[in-house]
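Incident log, entry 3
Record: Co/Zn/Cd efflux system component (211 residues)
Problem: checksum mismatch between cached and fresh output.
Input:
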Amino acid sequence: MACTCSHEPAPQKPNSKFRTALWIALIINIVMFMVELIGGAYAHSSALWADALDFFGDAVNYGISLAVLGASLYWRATVALIKGITMALFGFVVIAKALYAYVQGIPPEAMTIGAIGLLALIANVTAAVILYAFRDGDSNMQSVWLCSRNDAIGNVAVILAAVGVFGTGSMWPDIVVAVIMATLGLIGGYQVIQKALQERKENKPFVPASE
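Fresh output:
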């Protein structure tokens, strides 16, 4: 009879506190995605549109994280790898949106950007504080923490963009913020991908030899 044992660590027992934190973060991100999607369209803001896309991506990531909480480290790392790639792709999408906004040349509405940016900051700081305790976990937990941390930093930049647009009447502050958010996505995605690849390499499932 073929061996069915595995050299990989046993699947981690789902962490109830982490699960609860993920559900809270998931709900926050879904709500803010809708708020920024509508607000970004109204204000003609590429920064808000980019942040709305980020909220949507995070909501998907949190949902995936909830689905694999009881899986082995190898499969949690595999999901984290996908999320890392998604974070990096988000960076390129934001850059493309910023270029599109530059071509259109329509100045955004500063007051709407500032109000929604402040609301988004409160939401993301709340999620980041809730997830802070899990920042040093495996790549899956780390990716969740990085998403919330990057979002909070991005929201501060959105608020600064609103101030800049209000003071200058120019679209450039809005575009600069979009580029900053893209950079955060690229850096965060790279960090998650590196750790996920290492965990996958160190925890490959055992495949029994054919008889």
